[in-house]
Amino acid sequence: MLKDSNSFQQDLPFPIYFVIKDQDHYWDDLLYSDDLPSMSSLQDRVILGKETCTILTYVFLKSKKMDVHLTTEFQDEQICVVSYDDLRIRDFPHNSFVVVCRADRPKPFICERCVQFNPSTIHLKTDFYMKMWPLFNLIPRNSLRKSKVENISFPGHIINLDRAFRSPSFYSEIQKLGMKLAISKCDLKNRRANWNDYKNVDVLLAVRNLTFKDSLVKPSPKLVNAWMAGCPAILGPESAFQDLRKTDLDYIEVRNTDQALKALRDLKNDHDLYQAMVINGLNRAMDYAPDIIAQDWVNYLSGPVVDHYLQWKKGNKQLLPLVRSTRFLYRSIMHKYAAYLHHYNIHYGDRILDVKTKR
Length: 359
Hints:
By secondary structure, this protein is of the alpha/beta class. The protein is built from twelve helices and 13 strands. Helix 6 crosses helix 9 (271-285) and helix 10 packs parallel to helix 11.
């Protein structure tokens, strides 16, 4: 059982239904039981991005005695929270008040509100920025390593690392510095990943192979996880990282391998800099404690969502079905177009490392 810490003072005015399409029956224990697993065992099972939005939020709010439910179907006339990946036109969810968690996906249109995890995507009054859940089973860096800089890690699929940073010449240069680069593995088919293990990681490197448009929807967990792990980060010029940055100690931003190599040399030779980044990161990570993020969700679901939900329910009861159906038809067209546009932008747009941002 997930132990309940201090419950929130306010309750949710209406029940909240978290919708997940679970074709493999992977979450039957949560769908058909009120018993909650330990957070450590749960995090080991959460591999897909959509589960971070729905499963983790549901379990945390459930552990706080909130009126929340996990379901595989949209509930008519109810507030339903769903990830973009599980939001499908063929389910005709227009009779539900749909709150979509977007993450790094196309802009959703068949919904009433949208939870965004990158401030750069906040464009409409129905958009809302939310901190994304960090890794709960994160294994922090071994403090006995002190300021040693030997092991560099990229937590992700190698195809997502910029080509220059996985080239033989870059590997050769970091070897000359007495370092090695490791790519964390993830097996989605068998639902296995080791992105949480920072025990022997000295520096996190994440300069990703992204177009500029793609970078605008990427969330910031790589930076937050590095803070939590006590591990300095060298990152590309992504807006999610830049929006969180308060000082130069938060992370080192680079655009090419030469800058990355300089940053690695600086971290290796300047022990004070290394330790200052570690301490700063641990302090910044306090803002991402699970209870804080859970409270943000409660505030959102009991505030802006409820206000909009009450407005959505108003109107002529006989005309509402027609109004919603007509609106859904238009939104479905826009939803498909947005998906096409997103696909085009992330594959054929300008590379982020070639775009000079204003930040």
